[in-house]
Amino acid sequence: MSDIICDVCFRHCRLQEGQTGFCRARKNISGRNVPVNYGRLTSLAMDPIEKKPLYAFHPGSRILSAGSFGCNLACPFCQNHEISMHDDMPVYEVSPEQLCQLALQQKDNLGVAFTYNEPLICHEYVLDTAKLLKQNGLCTVLVTNGCVSLPVLETLLPYVDAMNIDLKGDEQFYKELSGDYETVRNSIAFCIPRTHTEITMLIVPGRNDSEDFMRRESRWLAGLDPDTVLHITRYFPRYRYTVPPTDISLLYRLKDIAEESLHNVFLGNVWQ
Description:
alpha/beta, two-stranded antiparallel sheet, 14 strands, 28% helix, 8 helices
């Protein structure tokens, strides 16, 4: 059997027969690039839409949130590491048809949010479900790190109603995370004109908390659309990071800086 190169994200993992990629969710099976987490959910819950976070998309609504396992980043401060970093959690087989029916059965439900882990490493499941949701008048929401190829986004976006994309830091910070800064920026620039897109920055003390970075990135976002919603979120110790939580006064300073360019800037996790 021949090797394959996965083209879902910037990593372009070369996979031998039977080998699984960095994300732990895509595998070479008989020369095919197979998402082994297709329809395999680890988390399912009704959430306020603001928890995604989305503040300017049907505020006050609730949405069925679904997560699988795996991620194409390995952030040492991951806030959902129990889900994204492990593939030994209990898994429930839920087909796109079943997930759509579950969404329809929930009272006052906006649709389905694909979240908790990185949903776009299994874009096929998202697409198959999103088509059914659209046929039934429900919304599809993505919460993503944005580290995905543009062809994947081009295929998905006609069926996606809203997104929240993480912008984790500058180019050096993404290198430390073994991520790709330009891929994320390209995803953001591609999505903002095409669907409702909000941005989240998790501020990790000493890593991505500079005023210069916030000023530069908020100006860039404003160049795409000054009405873009930016969430500046407080970090708490998780996974392998034990650094104390972000200082709240710093978050307020960064918010003031972002508001020099953007009209809609919100703080998250401040009151936890």
